[in-house]
Write a structure and sequence with these properties.
Shape: globular
Number of helices: 10
Keywords: Hydrolase
Pfam families: Abhydrolase_1 (PF00561)
Protein name: Alpha/beta fold hydrolase
Organism: Nocardioides ginsengisoli
GO molecular function: hydrolase activity
Structural class: alpha/beta
CATH topology: Rossmann fold
CATH architecture: 3-Layer(aba) Sandwich
């Protein structure tokens, strides 16, 4: 394992944390560290097309006030070169290579959307490595509606492409007055970092991610009883991308799970309600 850059100083924020790199499994992974040096690190696994620049600063800085937080770009995304894997299981292989590069013996995981799929595989595959698990805006393999691209999803994504705008305001938030205001606020927050940003995800990489998502939805269900870690499942009440009922299914099938649903919120409910989600996560991780 080869890492570049000195250790991160305490007090580093989502805006100031430098982008560093570590080599593992033939890839040079881009990552950032926030928060204290001591304690079990919380490793974040992000959503479809996202990079380390797309995490909500209020979530990152809020959790990093107490806990070491690590965000990274998996193979072929953002600041990490290579070809994006076309299965969730292969994405989990790469995420594990990144984690093992630091020789951590224990981590907590927060997986959002596609990252939640990856987190489920990691937690079931290496139960001694994962202490606690947070699954946000995600769903189980083989569950109806997971990995299926409904008309609303395709329409909103198409509108973003046609207008050359980020589709997240349409996909992550409700169309109510509250939801529209939350979308504006979120987009402003993820733009707060103005330097040392990574490349956006390419269309080719996004297409490969879509294939992995479709395969996750089409595969046979995982035995979620294998996930014995305490698990926090969170979502908005009207998720347009991964139906909220998938979160209910996760909470039902994972033995030691707790479910939190945020009102008047969609796929990005944990960002819209960051003022509630961050204390929830910190309390859960304690």
């Amino acid at each position: 394992m080869t890492a570049t850059g000195a250790s991160t100083a305490p007090g580093t924020t989502s805006v100031t944390a430098p982008t560093r790199h570590v080599e593992a499994a033939g890839a040079r992974f881009a990552y950032r560290e926030l928060g204290p040096r001591d304690g079990v690190p919380l490793v974040l696994l992000h959503h479809f097309t996202a990079t380390i620049d797309d995490w909500d600063p209020r979530v990152l800085d809020g959790i990093a006030a107490e806990r070491p937080v690590v965000v990274f770009d998996n193979r072929g995304v953002g600041g990490t070169r290579g070809r994006v894997p076309t299965t969730v299981e292969a994405m989990a292989d790469d995420a594990l290579a990144f984690i093992h590069a630091f020789r951590w013996t224990e981590v907590d995981l927060l997986g959002f959307s596609l990252g939640g799929f990856v987190a489920q595989v990691i937690a079931s595959r290496e139960p001694r490595l994962v202490r606690r698990l947070v699954l946000a805006g995600t769903g189980p393999a083989g569950f109806k509606g997971v990995g299926q691209f409904n008309r609303r999803l395709l329409t909103d994504s198409g509108q973003g492409l046609l207008t050359r705008s980020d589709p997240k305001p349409l996909l992550f938030f409700t169309r109510t007055r509250t939801g529209r205001a939350a979308a504006v606020d979120y987009m402003a927050r993820i733009g707060e970092r103005t330097s040392d940003r990574v490349n956006r995800t390419s269309l080719r990489a996004a297409a490969r991610q879509l294939l992995a998502i479709a395969r996750w939805g089409a595969r046979s269900p995982m035995d979620l009883a294998l996930i014995g870690q305490p698990t926090l499942v969170a979502n908005g009440e009207d998720d347009r991308m991964l139906a909220t009922r998938g979160s209910f299914e996760l909470a039902h099938r994972i033995p030691n799970a707790r479910l939190v649903i945020y009102p008047d919120a969609g796929h990005g409910g944990v960002f819209q309600h960051h003022d509630r989600f961050v204390p929830e996560v910190l309390g859960f991780l304690r």
